[in-house]
Design brief:
The complex is a heterodimer of chains A (189) and B (446). Helices cover 32% and strands 16% of the residues of chain A. With 189 residues, chain A is of the alpha+beta class. The chains are: A alpha+beta (189), B mainly beta (446).
């Protein structure tokens, strides 16, 4: 239904087209969009899943799940086996106090070799949307690099940035912003 | 208006023709009359927009009211006019004529109208025929007139084109209202979805319906295509919508993860921001997603691409100096030139239609304001007033206005301002959510 095209230079595109019968542009376009929106999350995995988070289609999300999936499901903000780390404003350097957090996270990952982790970079609300997505990517990569240095295989670690789009806290002050400038670790089998 | 025949698509249904000057003694042998009004800081001109005379088929005045209501709103949004309250109008449009010599200018002079719009409408099975004139009350002369033919659904667009023509007659420069605004909004839920609407707020259209994150809509110049970023596959990717064919293409890259981008004014190319191992760089790609060339190559952040109307120049934000600053470079490649030096957070640049000026957002005291700077380098000018956080500027097609998002009210809204006198004219959006990321298209059908 959604053919995959291989464009020039190896770029991949998938195209969705709309039935001709849909004469009304608005309804038609919305349906076309819905037709290629994300799949339903996989069934819940009860074990080691205290927060009721679900396994997303990317295989991430168990316990302190994937933030976008949890946010969609109204179960946002749960911590899993790995603790969040935090950043200074507009910075992506791992802070000293978070070194011990990452060491403990690395120990857990070493003790659970069957798991994978997706590091999510998040930002506070200040700054432009696009710059913050790039900044969140830097933050996620910084934690990944740190975990790799601690001996975790890079193949077990993926990264994603949500920029400032998924704040834990919505007050407009530093107490809130400092919680939102974070890396979150979504663990999956 | 009982019934219309869908004979043709919107874009080809409106036949626009200038009515040749008649009964108007014009200096210089009938050339266009232009008078400059309401420059920055001067008083607004007053304009009365009379009801249209029904020549048949519009006895409930539905068509006429749609035209007049849309026209009044657009003229208000232009920032050049104060609309005289219709309750003050003396003349009954149905009882008087609308051509020069068929009505009494004294009726309009006595309510202090500088200008008056009069016209007629007929509606039937063959569609709507609409005629409108702009008169200069003091000079008692006709300045401009237009005929429009189309369906009843085309009437708001006839009004926008007439508003644009009034601005051209009165200021020498065509108005910007025959265009579309795209935006991101959380109205109706928690999720950021893409919407489009007319500048005057009509025809709101929800383009995306995926409960994730959708950002950064950008139009090609004629609003045939719209590019946006979505997390609907649970990871960010660009989607290029063909608004006519009602289809879209997902654009991903073997280079890394696509986190932003913009479509070129001609709709043929895209500059994408692609992240790999934490570094985000800009790439020129085709509409189908094929890579043409890398544009930046740093280990840091390069985002917020904007392309000049002639397709030659790129503006973007980079942290290569240590803080986010604005750079410009040729899309053919070469070294970027840094434009902004004041402030420690400058981002979201956009080229004016002429390409000689950039608007962008700059942070001070924890909030952003919109600034402009010559595209070749020079002194930046603050154009918003420090009220709330003012972000994400987008130029009108005529280059006189900026749309931008602002938190000056309770919710974040899209506002329109006149750049020349820094006057914030009105909010362009309403509703219960937060609106952001405005993108103002070029004139439709061009």
């Amino acid at each position: 239904m959604i053919p995959v095209q291989h464009g020039r230079g190896g770029w991949v595109s998938s195209r969705s087209t709309l039935a001709r019968a849909m004469a009304i542009v608005g309804v038609g376009l919305m349906l076309a969009m819905a037709g290629c929106s994300s799949k339903k999350p996989a069934p819940m995995n009860g074990e080691n899943n205290p927060n009721g988070s679900q396994i997303g289609e990317n295989g991430v999300g168990k316990g302190g799940g994937n933030s976008l999936e949890d946010w969609k499901n109204g179960k946002f903000g749960a911590q899993g086996p790995l603790s969040d780390i935090h950043f200074a404003y507009n910075e992506y350097t791992i802070q000293e106090q978070d070194g011990s957090v990452l060491k403990s996270d690395a120990s857990w990952l070493q003790a659970h070799p069957q798991t994978r982790v997706q590091v999510e970079g998040h930002c506070d609300e200040r700054g432009s949307e696009e710059y913050n997505i790039a900044l969140g990517a830097k933050r996620a990569q910084a934690a990944k690099d740190y975990l790799v240095t601690l001996g975790i295989s890079g193949s077990r670690i993926s990264t994603i940035s949500y920029g400032k789009e998924l704040p834990l806290c919505t007050e407009h002050d530093e107490s809130c912003w400092s919680q939102n400038r974070r890396d979150h670790f979504a663990v999956s089998e | 208006m009982k019934r219309v025949i869908q004979a043709c698509a919107l874009l080809c249904a409106i036949v626009l023709a200038s009515i040749p000057g008649r009964a108007v003694a014009q200096p210089g042998g009938g050339g266009p009359i232009t008078i400059t009004i309401a420059g920055p800081g001067s008083q607004l001109s007053t304009i009365a927009v009379s009801g249209l005379k029904d020549l048949g088929g519009d006895d409930d005045h539905r068509v006429g009211s749609t035209f007049v209501g849309t026209l009044r709103r657009d003229l208000e949004l232009s920032g050049y006019f104060r609309i005289i309250d219709p309750h003050a109008y003396i003349e009954d449009p149905q009882a008087s004529g609308f051509e020069l010599g068929q009505f009494n200018f004294a009726d309009w002079r006595s309510i202090n109208a500088d200008f008056v719009v009069k016209g007629s409408v007929s509606a039937g099975a063959a569609g709507v025929k609409l005629t409108a004139f702009l008169y200069d009350v003091a000079q008692q002369r006709r300045m401009m007139g237009k005929n429009y033919n189309g369906d009843a659904g085309d009437v708001p667009r006839m009004a926008r084109r007439f508003a644009d023509a009034i601005l051209e007659a009165a200021t020498g420069q065509r108005g910007p209202f025959d265009s579309r605004l795209a935006l991101v909004s959380t109205r109706g839920g928690r999720f950021k979805e893409i919407y489009t609407q007319s500048i005057d707020g009509q025809d709101l259209f929800k383009l995306t319906g995926n409960p994730t994150i959708n950002l950064f809509p950008s139009f090609d110049r004629s609003a045939n295509h719209l590019l946006y970023l979505s997390y609907k596959s649970m990871a960010p990717a660009l989607y290029l919508v063909d608004l006519k064919a009602q289809s879209e293409v997902k654009i991903t890259s073997p280079r890394g993860r696509v986190i932003g981008g913009t479509i070129s004014p001609d709709g043929e190319r895209i500059v994408a921001a692609i992240e790999r191992e934490g570094a985000t760089n800009l790439y020129l790609i085709t509409r189908e997603g094929g890579e043409i060339r890398p544009l930046t190559d740093t280990n840091g952040i390069n985002v917020s691409p904007a392309i000049s109307l002639d397709g030659a120049t790129l503006a973007f934000t980079s942290d290569r100096s240590g803080t986010p600053q604005i750079y410009v470079m040729s899309l053919a490649g070469g070294a970027p030139k840094r434009l902004t030096y004041s402030g420690d957070y400058n981002t979201t640049p956009v080229f004016s239609p002429k390409g000689d000026t950039l608007a962008y957002q700059s942070r001070s005291n924890g909030r952003f304001d919109i600034w402009t700077i010559p595209a070749g380098g020079g002194e930046p000018v603050q154009v918003t007033d420090g009220n709330g956080s003012n972000e994400y500027p987008s130029w009108s097609p005529d280059g006189r206005y900026l749309a931008f998002s602002s938190t000056r009210g309770y919710n974040s809204r899209i506002y329109i301002m006149m750049v020349g006198n820094r006057k914030i004219i009105s909010a362009l959006t309403e509703g219960n959510g937060n609106d952001s990321c405005p993108a103002w298209s070029g004139w439709l059908g061009e």
